[in-house]
Amino acid sequence: MRPPRVLALAQLMNSIGDGAYYVTSALYFTAIVGLSPAQIGIGLTLGWAVGSVAGVPLGHLADRRGARGTAVLLALATSLAVASFLFVRSFPLFAVAAVLYASCQCGLGAARQALLAGLVEQDRRTEARAFLQSASNAGLAVGAALGGIALHSGTREAYLSVFVTDAASFLAAALFLSRLPAVALAEPHPGEPRLAVLRDRPYAVVTLINTVMLFYMPLISLVIPLWIVRQTEAPSWTVSALLVLNTLSVVVFQVRVARRVRDLRSAVRTVRHSGLVMFAACAVFAVSGTGSTTWAAALVLLAAAGLQVLGEMLLASGTWEIGFGLAPADKQGQYQGFFGTGQSVARMLGPLALTTLVLGWGALGWLLLGGLFAVAGIAMGPAVRWADRTKSHPHRPAMTTEANVPP
After folding, report:
1. How many other β-carbons are positioned within 10 Å of the β-carbon of residue 252?
2. How far is CA 336 from CA 128, 164, 214, 320, in A?
3. E-assigned strands of 318-368?
4. Which CATH topology does 199-393 take?
5. How far apart are alpha carbons 175 and 255 in whole angstroms?
6. For residue range 38-66, what is the model confidence (pLDDT) as tens digits?
7. pTM (2 d.p.)
8. CB-based contact 243:302 (threshold 8 Å)
9. Which of 46, 69, 228, 275 has a CA between 20 and 30 Å from the CA of residue 290?
């Protein structure tokens, strides 16, 4: 079986468990364990903060000790971290378990990216990454359905079965990852810093811009449901309809969108288009709260969600190519770990920032958010060109523009 398919199966397995976990974990920790929503928020914020820092050295470990072995080890560690939630009875234990879970997840993501970079040809990486994303979303959808069964039951045993399922899913992922070919170890160059990515300022700027654009992540899961309930006349089932639209769109269309990205130039153009599409989506979301009829509001929200998921797929396709293309071949693990901090930061800061902006400022907040996405998408071009100029990687051709393409 080809490496991308094995990676996709591993992604599918642990995404099923994660989907069930995401749907049920908050209610379990509040209704069964007795934690307050504030304690859960603090614990998760702490976990993802530590995880964002841990991703870089764990990615470096994948470069130096082997991406396959590191990925398998971190998949097993994530399984243990999930299993530790079974024994949480207080906030301190929850905080420790959250830190372990987030750190292992961030490190596993970096090791997987290093595996992908080492096993897939350079011009096929973005398409392969899109294939993994489609598998991930399919797994999340299946897992969410399983989690819904546990929620319907509402018993302690049903909730605990979700954590067991999630832990088992990471064991299955580790088994699939162990069947992949080994990736050649990167030999350190004399005198170079251990974590070179921390001194790469252009790459840091590119990562920062990507982080800003990743603030779309809390929209579909938190901000939009609250917006629908509080500010629109749309029926409550619209929330589920938008989630289904988002998930199925990524499963069906992400690979097709990614096929248009082949190099840094096309990646920059795709990210720029993503910012503009997200601005349009935010503008349509702003219109949905203007007091229209029930069905009109639902149709406007569906149109806005369609634009939002298109922007999401464009952004993912472009930034995957950028994240891989600007990283040295022998340091993909640590560079992908650093690039992946954008997701952790968006998970930490996005919910508070976006609920304050959108729910507090209404239509104006939506327009400001859309403007931020558009500006960030446009800014990605100069940042990538700067990063590309300061690099001299023999494995990567220089970025071209219309001005220097020979006739």
Report:
1. 12
2. 15, 29, 15, 10
3. none
4. Growth Hormone; Chain: A; (1.20.1250)
5. 25
6. 888 888 889 989 998 999 999 999 988 89
7. 0.85
8. no
9. 275
